[in-house]
Amino acid sequence: MRIRTIAAVLAASTSAAALYAPAARAQQSEARYDIPAQDLAAALRRYAEISGKQVIAAEQIVAGKLSTAVRGRLTAGAALSRLLAGTGLSIDLVEGTLVARAGNGGGDAIEHIEQLDADIIVTGTRIRGTGPVGSPVAVIDRAAFEHSGRATLAELIQTIPQNFSGGPTEAVSGSTARGNAGTNLGFGSGINLRGLGSGSTLTLFDNGRPALGGGAGAFTDLSLVPSVAIESIEILTDGASAIYGSDAIAGVVNIRFRNRYEGFEARLRAGTADGDFGEVQLSQIAGAGWDGGNLTLAAEYYRRGNLPSSRRAFATEDLRPFGGPDLRSNFANPGSIVAANGQVFGIPRGQDGTRLTRADLVPGGFNRGDTRRNIDILPRQETKSLYLSAEQDLAPTISVFARALYADRRFETRRRLFGIQAQRVTSANPYYVDPIGTGQPITVYYDPAADFGPEGTRGRARAFNSSFGARADVGDWSVELSGGYGLQREHDEGVNVVHRLKLQRAAAATTTATAINLFGDGGVNDPALIDSLRGGQTRDVRYEVLSAALRADGTLFALPAGDVKAAFGAEYRRDRLRYHALIDVTSDEPVVSTIPGLPDQRAVKALYGEIVVPAFDAGAQFPGALTLSAAGRYEDYSDVGDTANPKFGARWVPLSGVTLRASYGRSFRAPYFTELVGAANALYQTLRLPDPKSPTGQTTALGLFGFRPDLGPEKARSWTAGVDLEPRFAPGLRLSATWFDIAYRDRIASANFDLQNFLVRRDIYGSLVDDAPDPALVSAYFADPSFSNPLGVTPTAIGAIVDGRTLNLSSATVRGIDFDLTFARPLAAGRVTLSLGGTRMLKIGSKVTDAAPEQNVLATLGNPVKLRLRGRAGLEFGAFDGGIAVNHVGGYRNLTVTPAEPVKSWTTFDLQLGTRIAASASGRSLRLALSINNLFDKAPPYVRFLTSNSAFGYDPEQASAIGRMAALQAVIAW
User: Fold this and answer.
1) Is residue 763 packed enough to be buried (19+ CB in 10 Å), middle (13-18) or exposed (0-12)?
2) Residues with Cβ < 8 Å from 340, sequence gap 6 or more?
3) Is there a contact between 216 and 180 (Cβ–Cβ < 8 Å)?
4) Angle, CA 192 vertex, CA 188 and CA 198 arms, to 5°
5) Contact 189/124 with Cβ under 8 angstroms?
6) Whose CA is closest to 968, among 322, 281, 57?
7) pLDDT at residue 866, rounded to an integer
8) With bands split at pLDDT 50, 70 and 90, how would you rate the model's confidence at 26?
9) Mean pLDDT, rounded, for 753-757
10) How far apart are CA 577 and CA 590, in angstroms?
11) Phi, psi of 451 (to 5 degrees)
12) Mean pLDDT in the chain?
């Protein structure tokens, strides 16, 4: 018997992209239903669209049956009970899905569905069975994930229009340090809503905080989450510190797991990017349910090869084919010689450097080398992960649960770790060649990769996250006591690292046994000698989180418009970060490196409360229904003090099919551990700065560098306002729009990049300048162990103190509009869906200090673009389904080069085709799918992207270098 999905997913008031089903309605305990009596299959589809409940029914069961009309504001259970009245059908709840069965049982339907509602806490609220009033939430359900063509959660997140792909992602690592990308030691992948930084987006696992990744603990590594275990991804694009505490400035991403799965499902996937880049994924989930309990186990293996720069034409330092400059390095193999008089000579090819003469050299310029040839765009990754969930009722009103996720990811990639240095060679070196015949020392520009092998890194990231607790129903209230423990460990080590000091000594050695030959073409040195010149680097990071929480939510009392519901809770969390490095590059003995001043731990205590009030409900007549909400949270940090943050929301349904909503809240981000090192990393130094107020044009100043010891939280104020329309004249059509405004202040930053203008632009930097320093304070700095006096001046010579330390300094304002349009209609024996969603950014205003003029950095390199879109057209017809999606990234400007250069927009298409075969009434099925992402193999637009030691021709923060990626997938369920 063929099973057909009638409707799917939690529905939402606004959606992040075309893939995502609208979500707000599923997040309300009640919704307005207007379903006329009609064919039962069509009625169930409409019910699913309104309620957001996934309903599955056999075609034979619903064929020829008519539904009862359902109208009014009802719970999901009451609405379905009325809909099925007189049909002879009942509902079973299987893995969170409603399955229609033959046999009358309307009462069971209410019990099943309303129990499901009661267990759900939607992201953005602590009240079960409801949703965040006034705030936009989008949901990517399991089906949308399957049809996205993406294998992993880390890949899927990059398609969300609200996400900016800068920051800690594997594609950006090694290219820039912006947005904590430089702390991503293990090539993980985080999310960065609105481009405000990974630390400003809170990521949760089933409402709990996991251990964090990277060298600073600045992001949640989504690459460690097995995709087979994911039920849905809920995305709140609104500030939510009043609900969750720190980090929820730009929004919250909550990963929901398949905790009530029953049955078996295997997933096999293989993909390739035109043979240059491949992946394999094997997954299995199994679950068993019994009266009052469930056990679910999921395992996944994912392996992906590296993507070398040599396989992508735009990943090169020679940008001339794209209209740019030649940025290749002066370091090459064979290398170049700079003579004592400054003349440059190229070393010829095709020789080993042992019999090289002055006449063989090529005068006139450097041999140029493309560093990118030995650098990978993406690392090789191999991930093994395991997820376990168990639930058991101990009594009719008491249940316990436990969940655990373990993942082990190994990586390896070629990249520059320490860069290259020119070598000074004297006539004592047995391979010395004098280009000008004077016998003086020469400088050789030599790329060691041919002898040592390409420099790189390899390592491992392991994470364990768990939660456990007990729930009890006390009348209308639900009380939960829970705890959690998370641990993430990361280790990396350098590959083919050159020991700089040993290489310098080898360049100065006097015998062929000890001297390095820098004059050949290729790897010409004895491997034993090369091995003696190798260095190394290892780094280890450990992040640990321990938490406990007591929560309660339920009905306070009833009003004419409905129940007033509330939630209260207390939480405790302890975080710890450990960092250890061993560097063997510049000295005879390896140097142990830690982070001086790193806090031992952080303890956080929190109290919160939330209330939802139905102000009035006039039914379908104007003024309709109004619901208000308020929330507040107080947190006390052991290291940065306390903070209190409120949030308010309103949802008004003046007419059927029209919803207006708004929210206001304050949020914050606590400093990272690495930002709280205080004076332990301080440097106090004398310097001379330009000063138009000085008769000499300069002032001798004392510069303060490092971190201020009084760093506090970053703070933000957020507004949203939105509208959701479902016109009755166009069934299946939904339009949503949300305006947002985030004012972000006290951002942790330093202005020392513009130190030379501190005294020139006192109107901007005046708050960082002390023009009349206290002599006692100056003397104290001079006596400090961190003081440096390169000018050799006395304390009385200091005319100003300038503060170049990292402190709560800058601010930002972000405004824009999220929008979504969806249309879904039955079509013969199938269904057609059309959707278009995206974000139109209006402003990203940035100020270095409060006194500085605001600069709009919107649509510039390193920041979000003005317009980002994702659309999809899908068709389901019998056992077949297919869809084509479009992804659009708007153009922007590259201000990192002079003159500024425009960057073109980038539009790609994805194709998905699938068929379900061998389906049976018992639930056995096989689904085969083909996905082709970037169908037309559209290359990224040209960007002159400059790094600290290299360059290339595309922007990894806005575009993918993978190209066309085709994958075959089979999902077997039984």
Assistant:
1) exposed
2) 436, 438, 440, 441, 442
3) yes
4) 65
5) no
6) 281
7) 98
8) very low
9) 93
10) 23
11) -85, -45
12) 90
* SS3 per residue for 557-595: EEECCEEEEEEEEEEEEEEEEEEEEEEECCCCCCEEECC
Using CA atoms, how far apart are residues 448 and 525, in angstroms rounded to an integer?
A: 10
Q: Give the span between the Cα atoms of 813 and 722, in whole angstroms.
A: 19
Confidence (pLDDT) at 831: 83
Can you read off the two tokens belonging to residue 388?
Answer: 């376990």
Quick one: pLDDT band at residue 177, thresholds 50, 70, 90?
Answer: confident
DSSP 243-310: HH-TTTTSEEEEEEE-TT--EEEEEEEEEESTTSSEEEEEEEEEEEEETTEEEEEEEEEEEE--EEGG
- For residue 594, what are the contacts with CB-CB under 8 A and spacing of at least 6? 579, 580, 581
Is a pLDDT exceeding 90 seen at residue 538?
Answer: yes
- Whether omega before 956 lies within 30 degrees of 0, making that bond cis, reads no
pLDDT band at 129 (very low <50, low <70, confident <90, very high): confident
Whether residue 831 contacts residue 875, with contact meaning beta carbons closer than 8 Å, is answered with yes
Q: Could you give the CA distance from residue 375 to residue 457 in angstroms, rounded to a whole number?
A: 11
What amino acid occupies position 180?
N
Assess contact for 307 and 412: CB atoms under 8 A: no
CA-to-CA dists, residue 165 to 173, 765, 901, angstroms: 11, 32, 21
Distance, CA of 351 to chain centre:
49
Whether residue 135 contacts residue 238, with contact meaning beta carbons closer than 8 Å, is answered with yes
Tokens representing 379?
């690392």
Strands 263-272 and 380-395: unpaired
Pairing state between β 362-363 and 344-346:
antiparallel
Mean pLDDT for 287-291 is 91
For residue 918, what pLDDT is reported?
A: 72
Closest CA to 883 of 853, 904, 914: 914
Q: Identify the residue whose tokens are 């551990």.
A: 673
The 3-state DSSP class for residue 440 equals coil
DSSP string, 40-108: HHHHHHHHHHHH---EEEEHHHHTT-BPPPEEEEE-HHHHHHHHHTTTTEEEEEETTEEEEEES-BHHH
In whole angstroms, give the CA distance from residue 168 to residue 157: 13
Instruction: List the beta bridge partners of residue 209.
Output: none
Phi, psi of 560 (to 5 degrees): -55, -30
Antiparallel, parallel or unpaired: β 683-690 and 787-788: parallel
pLDDT tens digit sequence for 727-740: 888 888 999 999 99
Q: Give me the residues paired with residue 680 across strands.
A: none
**Among the listed ranges 2-11, 471-480, 736-745, 927-936, which one has the minimum average pLDDT value?**
2-11
* 873: β partners: 834, 884
pLDDT of res. 16: 28
| SS3 (DSSP) at 757 | helix
Which pLDDT does position 146 carry in this prediction?
A: 87
Nearest-angstrom CA–CA distance, 106 and 117: 17
CB atoms within 10 A of CB 606: 20
User: Cα-Cα-Cα-Cα dihedral of 512, 517, 519, 523, to 10°?
Assistant: 120
Q: Is 317 left (phi over 0), alpha (psi -120 to 50) or beta?
A: alpha
Least confident of 73-77, 194-198, 782-786, 931-935: 73-77
Q: Strands 536-559, 477-495: parallel, antiparallel or unpaired by DSSP?
A: antiparallel
Give the Cα separation of 268 and 488 in Å (integer).
Answer: 28
Among all chains, which residue has been given the structure tokens 């939630």? 567
- Asked if omega into 775 is within 30° of 0 (cis), the reply is no
Is residue 134 within 8 A of residue 265, CB to CB? The reply is no
Map out the domains of the chain as residue ranges: 334-368+420-452+500-533, 678-710+751-803
Q: Write down the pTM of the prediction.
A: 0.87
Closest CA to 62 of 14, 125, 6: 6
Residue type, 681: N
Q: Among candidates 856, 851, 818, 811, which has minimal Cα distance to 837?
A: 818
Predicted confidence at residue 332, as pLDDT, reads 96
